[in-house]
Design goal:
Blueprint (H helix, E strand, L loop, with lengths): L7 H30 L6 E5 L6 H17 L3 E5 L6 H8 L7 E6 H10 L7 H4 E10 L1 E5 L8 H10 L5 E4 L5 H13 L4 E4 L4 H8 L4 E5 H9 L4 E5 L26 E8 L4 H25 L2 E2 L4 H22 L5
């Protein structure tokens, strides 16, 4: 006995109902997926692993203000100082990789501290991903005006003629300011004494004449240079700084390859989605042109570029500083 075939009208109704259900489900899911993937749809925390008012903090605030305006969400600075930048850096390493916790970091925590600190529980090069470099910030060799040296040649001659009489300050053992002076003293063959400080106290003593010289980030001393309270001798970058174009580099004064500056950029926790990294990279690159004049005036050279370029640069910096830290014998508790 043959079974009756469903009528064509019934089939049409059945197929029409199923299609409608599928379409409704699809149309309902699309807005939800789009809403979930839209980034950013809430405030973004940007950690700075140093105190407010320092070079990292100043650059981070300038750039994130532009990002907030462009992306329509607050980018909120969260200062987490301590441990030479390790406390704030580890906080971001352990944060969810969703793009809502980022860090503006610098040469110390990213390229120096792995060699300087013996018991680190994370690897910043592996546990963070590069987003974009904000700026290069050369160190500048500055002396108290009481030091009778106005040029690099005069400084070298004076340092050699007065062994162990020149004290240099730094913002701490293993920092860029410490290692820059160590490198220079070794290259010129002068015996100098390192006096480590915590943060800005080194600059206070340099201005007072209690120490004679130091390598400092240009933004931290440019106003004192312009006021005549400090004398700029040379910068530590391979090329002259656009902020102090009249000041020669150490390299061009007979020490080729001398490069010991600071740099700053955005990083995110490993696993942050690639589209989020791409959006953040673009927003910073878009912001830099409007900040260029201000940054140069204050002592920073804007960079920008791709995540891949920044990642390659960061790895090269780690390889360079690893050798210097080991040669210096510097360690941190």
């Amino acid at each position: 006995m043959k079974r009756d075939k469903p009528s064509s009208l019934f089939l049409q109704k059945l197929m029409g109902t199923a299609t409608a259900v599928l379409l409704a489900a699809g149309l309902g899911a699309a807005p939800r997926a789009e809403a979930q993937s839209a980034y950013p749809n809430k405030p973004v925390r940007v950690v700075v692993a140093f105190t407010a008012g320092g070079t990292t903090d100043i650059l981070a605030r300038a750039v994130t203000q532009q990002m907030s305006e462009k992306l329509g969400q607050p980018f909120v600075i969260d200062n987490k100082p301590g441990g030479g930048g390790n406390i704030g850096t580890e906080f971001v390493v352990r944060a969810p990789a969703d793009g809502y916790t980022l860090i503006v970091n610098s040469v110390g925590p990213m390229a120096v501290n792995q060699t300087l600190y013996k018991n680190m529980t994370y690897d910043p090069l592996a546990d963070l991903v590069p987003v974009v470099q904000i700026a290069d910030v050369p160190n500048v060799l500055v002396v108290n005006p009481e030091v009778p040296a106005k040029t690099m040649e005069e400084f070298i001659a004076y340092a050699k003629a007065n062994p162990n009489k020149l004290n240099y300050g730094s913002t701490g053992i293993g920092t860029s300011s410490h290692l820059s002076s160590y490198m220079l003293s070794k290259r010129i063959g002068a015996e100098t004494l390192h006096v480590p400080y915590k943060g800005a106290n080194a600059l206070t003593d340099l201005l007072a004449g209690r120490i004679q010289f130091m390598f400092a980030t240009i933004p931290s001393v440019i106003s004192h240079i312009r006021a005549g309270k400090l004398r700029a001798i040379a910068v530590s970058s391979l090329k002259r700084s656009r902020s102090l174009p009249e000041v020669p580099t150490v390299a061009e004064k007979g020490f080729p390859g001398f490069s010991a500056g600071s740099w700053f950029g955005f990083f995110a926790p490993k696993g942050t989605p690639a589209p989020v990294i791409a959006l953040l990279n673009k927003s910073v690159n878009d912001a830099l042109p409007s900040l260029e004049a201000q940054m140069i005036r204050e002592g920073a050279d804007p960079v920008g570029g791709t995540p891949e370029q920044f990642g390659k640069f960061t790895r090269q910096e780690y390889d360079k500083w690893k050798v210097i830290v080991r040669e210096s014998g510097a360690t941190a508790e």
